[in-house]
Amino acid sequence: MLANLHHAAKTTTKNIVTKHTIQYSNPNKEVLEVGAISWAAHINARGDKMVKELQSQQQSLAAQLQQQQANMNAALKAQQAQLQSEQSQQLARALEGKGMAPADAAKVAAEAQSTSLEERARAVQHFFPTALPVDDYMNRVEVALAGMGFTGDNTIAMSNLCRDESCMILEDKIESVFGACFSTHGLGAVLTCGSIGIKAGLSHSPVVGGKEQYVFFSFPHIAIDSANEIGKISRPNRPGSSSACGALCACLADFQKDGLEANCRVPGVHDAENPEYSILKQRLARQLRSEGCDPSKLDLVSITQAAERTITNDLEHLISQAVDTSKANYAVFTGVQVHNWAADLTNRSIPSLEFVTVGKSYSVINGQKAPIDIMKVPALAPRQLRLLGSVSEEQHPDNDAPAADTTVQEIPRGYLLRRVGGSAGTRYVQLPGSEPVKA
Ligand SMILES: [Zn+2]
Fold this sequence. Notes:
Pfam families: LCIB_C_CA. Residues 51-98 form a coiled coil. The protein is of the alpha/beta class. The chain has two domains: 2-81, no CATH class; 129-438, no CATH class. 51% of the residues lie in helices and 13% in strands. It is built from eleven helices and 15 strands. The chain has helices at residues 2-23, 29-97, 102-127, 134-146, 168-178, 194-202, 246-258, 275-290, 300-322, 382-392, 413-421, and strands at residues 131-133, 156-160, 182-183, 207-208, 211-218, 221-223, 232-233, 242-243, 328-334, 337-340, 353-357, 361-365, 368-371, 428-429, 437-438. The strands form four sheets. Strands 2, 3, 4, 5, 9, 12 and 13 form a seven-stranded mixed beta sheet that branches. Strands 1-11-10-6 form a four-stranded mixed beta sheet. A two-stranded antiparallel sheet has the order 7-8. Helix 4 runs parallel beside helix 5 and helix 7 crosses helix 9 (300-322). It is globular. The structure holds zinc ion. Zinc ion (ZN) binds at residues 162, 164, 188, 221, 244-247. Zinc ion is lined by residues 162, 164, 188, 221, 244-247.
């Protein structure tokens, strides 16, 4: 089509030149021909511009179509996984009903459950290819760090997550390895504590052989629920779904409404009424502007990835201001926390999962920076991961997740409801103005 249009534009131009040459064949022919050629050049330029615009529109439409198809495929996979999960539990009950021993019935059902969980992981990896289940990720981090001399006994963890209570699942995993974290959390995981805030945490570090040791974790977050809805999260005792990350959703809406330029401010300037949000928004706007981003093409996944890049830069700047490498060793882990929770937390048959993407991972020991390849650290066996995962949930003993023979482990529903929702979470979910819902 484009080739035809281009040809049509050229032919029209040629006809115009011929027409004018014949029509104005007189003593001033030379001048008129020059005029015609100039006009022809103008028409030619307009033709080229139209062709370029059409090419651009065609590319944009093709990209949108491709993205829609990919989203539909991922949604389909997630729905299949959910169905398989429900079927696996029905299968266990049916096998028991037909006289199979409960242990054997549970084993058959666990195999079906594993397939379902792996499908869910693949649906998340469609958007975040480096996403690992949270227990698998934390195990690899712990093993890699232990090999370099960082352990829970000799290291303080500095965690930088969003303020959202859903992020506490990852905080618990970090704390099960390193003990209580020094938190620099902010809306959307924006860093507003400054170097004085960072230094406060560092000054609490254990000292080994005269040196302090720190491990920094920094993760903005996003929800992709079990129905593969981007940004949706079901919260205990709250009807319907809500957003995660709400702060990044708000930034996305503002950028698409007003553009990036209007949201860039002089560094250091913020809105006194909304200090964190205004700092988050302007840091993101400046980062995206410097990357030449078109805000109309942003979505929640891409703005979350941009937040990861921006906040990682900010963290590394603060580290350069706050850490004295002659007195301390440290490691840095960044990425995105992904909540892949049940789209309906009142439905016991839908597992809730939690993932972490692998971003920057490195150590700085005696001033020497070295990368850490998390993907090359071997995963533990599913049984070992289950045991380790339960450590972070030990304060919440309703560990009711079925055993799955995969590194993708369910976040036990009882623990999740208690940790995020409160003490009544495992018994029933009481929605305002409604009868208690048997959970
Ligand atoms: Zn958030």
